[in-house]
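Support reply, case 0932

Customer input (verbatim):
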Amino acid sequence: MNKDHIRSYWESQGVEHDDSHWASWGDNWAIDLEIETIGKHLKDGDHVLDVGCANGFSSLKQLEKHRLASVTGVDFAASMIAAANRTKARLGLGDEVSFAEGDVRSLAFADDSFDAVYTTRVLINLPTWEEQEQGIRECLRVTKPGGRVILSEGFWEPLVLLNALRALTKLPPLVEHDFNRYLKRSSLEAFLAERGLEWQVEDFSSVYYLGSRLVRELVTDPSAYPGYSNPINKIFYELEKQFSGGGMGIQQAFVIRKAP
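Our regenerated output:
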């Protein structure tokens, strides 16, 4: 799939879903886990950059939860930014939040501009590791020394593990969407190690994925529940908030500290 097709897909999502979480993803439970995980690494007074902010859904949630100095959101889909700015105007927000078109591979900000920079399922929209690496470099560049880069992305290795469990129960494998290319943890870890960067991994979705992508299909008829409304999803979401880990959560967060 070419890049124009990927952009066209997200432009259509922005038009169709306006300010809903569905603009970026229908899985509201996973989105909540993402927002909570990223929020743990934001501090009061931070200047924050949300790269690939979609319609601003996550940006505005973080602004609600923290006393941030500012939140800046950028996205390459014009329809997403238009939706974000409509929501900003409706809520009567001021200069503490701003939204503009932008590309993770070439961020229009000076070096060392933000205390924290995060992505949420953004790098996986780039079709090659070389472009994903370029996006990571840009996120690091615009982060202040000692600041944090949080990459909340989809990863290949957990998909392989989850599919192995599905194979044992004779379920078909899960596959990437045409507009997604999951990161390989091994490549990202090698990239960070080569640069002497410190990082930690937040495995925040494994229990939830176990329930919503395995148990759900074994004990219920998934077709009976539209979207992500299956009650199994909520049960395992609640479990995830108490217990985490296991390595099968496709959505994970690398929290990187830029050297002082």
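We compared this against your earlier run and they match. Two observations from our side: The beta strands are 47-51, 70-75, 97-101, 114-120, 143-154, 198-202, 251-257. The longest helix spans residues 3-17. Please reopen the case if you see a mismatch on your end.
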